[in-house]
Design brief:
6-stranded parallel β-sheet; 5-stranded mixed β-sheet; 4 domains; alpha/beta; 10% strand; Rossmann fold; 731 residues; 50% helix
Length: 731
């Protein structure tokens, strides 16, 4: 491998290393221009005036900044006139990018007018998404291979890395976030990997095949001139010779990234691991403790450790905070596992998942039910799988619930120890101060709560204040709590929330509006597309970035969605109620949901299932019994989708609500009232309540005949159904 470096006099030179002696090096990823610095320029000491030489200097200087002496750039490190060297380089390229200590992606068509690019994403996000770098064939492997790839603008400003920009990269490339986080490529199907090349181009048509060899882990001879079709055929032949089609398909369905700053709790993690997969039946463990103490983060860390330790253990994350979130989580698992029967419109996905995981063929698995505070109300116990190969973790603030879910195995999360809390604070602070006494005073004020520590550190970082200054703000807010909550932890979170929220309102009104909006829908899995549209689009991206920076939201990067911690959600709703804005803001949420909620056709099933928790939450909270057209229409859509999903009892309740509202507002003989009546009859029929269904349909038909006329389509449909039901009932 030929590597570049600057000699003692500052002259650019190169040296060759054998495979065994290659030192740490940086590598450049870029798109070629018409005036590149080439191998011949390197050998002859020419070309320093070329545009491409600036990229060479950038890579070398950035490598030096990262304490790396050597670096590699494809334009000048390969003698392309030597076919053997060229062939070896192309076959080794993926490995070279994979083994690099640093990879710098230089985006020549992205500029950053602001000095602090990472703090002003809105100024370059649009050009980043349109960058030519994402359209070239070779840059695909340059994105996938390195563990660390950093993106730089044409102004040499660092934009972020593969981890911090994974959401944007996922949206641009459609490459799963799990892959961008480093999951092995051989866990992804061949067709999906092939699909990543869609829309990309190469200068030489054969390179559309050659640029894929590292992604599929094969090597092949290069024959420029053979054409793309033949090159792809030979690539396919090489793949079939190897083990490309033997993939590890162990599912890991967890919506959150691993917390790289997770601190402490090692004794609890060891205790949890020791309780899993013991005995001949499903092991169940409950993690309990007050809100904000870190139950979810502990379960998340455990999930990632199990993934690393038990390679063949499937891991599934289920939000159990309410019935709709539970149902949506089960549906997501069913889709990802492609469980037979899923396409049946009347299938209960919870039962499908339960039966699948209870079978021996499912193998070893771990289920995490997060926020299982209302286990009985959401019907959690009814759909728990049972298998000696399985283990279940519950997180809950309710000690009684924990005792019911896992009576023999409860892990109570204690208050974080002072030393651990101090280390956590230092981890989250950008500029940790070496003032232990001041830090300890703040931590005591924060009740050693992880959520409070994270939010306090976020505020200190963004606003560049001292720890004593934040402690002063905290004391002021704690004193001003008009209606103290029941637990100290909730009071502390309410105070840290208010400190940050007031600052957000002053400096980013759209971010504040987004938070208030999310307080009126379910707090889990809020799709970014559900948030009111921003103009320009970059402003919305910046607003979400603000909420993330203040640790108000957790990103579900793979699903392009956000979660709010329960206490953040509660604090925001309490503020709305105190200000007399809860009803108004709930109406905003209902109006927006009505705009995006799909009809009940089968093709929209996954979308309506995802939005249903938000629609039901918005409808059931915040409004004081007031009726309007938007609310009634949203109730109607929810009822239709529940009916299509075979959830007839729940659909019945909403159809009755719509019928009663329509009757009260429009009258018993209004067409909308009659339609609601007919749908309620269909729902009763689906439940096997035949006599009630026939009686109601007879009444509905008679009214339709009188009001709409006997030839009206609705009247004819009702008559047809009525005749069919009566005939079935006689049989």
């Amino acid at each position: 491998m030929r590597l570049l470096y600057f000699d003692g006099s500052g002259r650019l030179t190169s040296t060759n290393f054998s495979q065994e002696t290659i030192p740490p090096y940086a590598i450049l990823s870029h798109t070629w221009c018409d005036d590149e610095f080439l191998f011949e320029d390197l050998m002859n000491g020419t070309g320093h005036g070329k545009a491409g030489y600036k990229k060479i200097m950038f890579c070398g200087e950035q490598a030096a900044h990262d304490h790396l002496q050597y670096f590699w750039v494809d334009t000048c490190c390969i003698d392309k006139w030597k076919l053997r060297e060229l062939s070896n380089a192309i076959n080794s390229m993926f490995q070279w990018y994979e083994n690099a200590a640093r990879c710098y992606a230089f985006l020549s068509d992205v500029s950053t007018p602001m000095a602090d690019a990472h703090l002003h994403e809105g100024t370059w996000d649009a050009s980043f998404r349109k960058s030519r770098w994402f359209t070239r064939g070779w840059t695909l492997q340059e994105l996938l291979a390195p563990a660390l790839i950093e993106f730089f603008s044409s102004d040499r400003q660092r934009l972020g890395d593969k981890d911090s920009l994974k959401q944007q990269i996922h949206e641009i490339t459609r490459i799963p976030v799990t892959v961008l986080r480093g999951d092995p490529l051989d866990e992804v199907s061949v067709p999906e990997r092939m699909a990543w090349m869609a829309g990309r181009q190469t200068t030489q048509e054969e390179d559309m095949a050659y640029s894929l060899i590292g992604i599929f882990g094969v090597s092949m001879e290069f024959r420029y001139g053979e054409g793309m079709k033949r090159a792809l055929e030979r690539l396919q032949e090489e793949m079939e010779k190897g083990t490309v089609y033997t993939t590890n398909t162990t599912p890991f369905i967890v919506p959150f990234d691993q917390n790289t700053r997770f601190t402490g709790r090692e004794s609890q993690l060891a205790e949890l691991e020791g309780k899993l997969f013991v005995g001949a039946s499903t092991t169940k463990v409950a993690i309990t403790g007050p809100g904000g103490i870190g139950k979810t983060q502990l379960a998340l860390e455990l999930a990632y450790r199990i993934k690393k330790k038990l390679k063949n253990c499937s891991v599934f994350w289920i939000s159990a905070s309410d019935k709709e979130s539970l149902y949506q989580s089960y549906a997501h698992i069913a889709r990802r596992l492609n469980i037979p029967g899923l396409d049946d419109e009347k299938a209960d996905v919870r039962k499908l998942v339960q039966l699948h995981l209870s079978s021996e063929s499912a193998g070893q698995w771990l289920l995490v039910f997060d926020n299982a505070d209302e286990a009985k109300a959401v019907g959690l116990m009814e759909f728990l799988p049972s298998s000696g190969q399985g283990a279940i973790i519950f997180t809950t603030t309710n000690r009684k619930t924990a005792a019911k879910l896992a009576p023999q195995s409860i892990v109570e999360l204690p208050e974080m120890e002072q030393d651990t809390a101090r280390r956590m604070l230092e981890t989250y602070l950008v500029n940790p101060a070496n003032e232990q006494e001041k830090a300890d005073l703040l931590l005591k004020g924060l009740a050693y709560l992880p959520l409070a520590i994270v939010q306090a550190a976020a505020y200190v970082n963004i606003n560049k204040i001292t720890l004593p200054e934040y402690l002063s703000l905290l004391a002021e807010k704690m004193e001003g709590l008009v209606e103290p909550l029941h637990r100290e932890s909730e009071n502390v979170i309410a105070a840290t929330w208010l400190i940050s929220f007031e600052q957000i309102r002053r400096h980013d009104t759209l971010a504040a509006d987004y938070l208030l909006f999310m307080a009126c829908v379910d707090r889990n899995d809020v799709p970014l597309a559900l948030l009111p549209a921003a103009s320009p689009h970059e402003q919305g991206i910046h607003a979400v970035g603000t909420l993330d920076a203040y640790s108000f939201v957790t990103k579900r990067t793979a699903e392009s969605a956000l979660d709010l911690h329960r206490l953040v959600h509660v604090s925001t709703r309490n503020w709305l109620e105190k200000e007399g804005l809860l009803s108004q803001q709930s109406q905003v949420a209902i109006t927006r949901l009505l705009e995006v909620f799909p009809d009940d056709n089968h093709g929209s099933r996954s979308k309506w299932r995802r939005l249903l928790p938000h629609a039901k939450f918005a409808l059931l909270s915040g409004l004081t019994g007031q009726e309007d057209e938007a609310k009634t229409n949203l109730v109607w859509k929810c009822a239709m989708t529940l009916n299509s999903d075979g959830r007839w009892k729940e659909a019945e309740e909403l159809f009755v609500q719509v019928m009663e509202t329509s009757s009260r507002v429009r009258g018993d003989e209004h067409p909308d009232t009659l339609t609601s009546m007919a749908n309620l009859a269909y729902t009763w029929k689906s439940q096997g309540r035949n006599r009630e269904a026939i009686s109601l349909m007879e009444r509905c038909f008679e009214l339709q005949r009188q009001i709409l006329g006997p030839q009206h389509p609705s009247t004819e449909t009702s008559l047809e159904a009525l005749n069919e039901w009566q005939m079935e009932n006689r049989d």
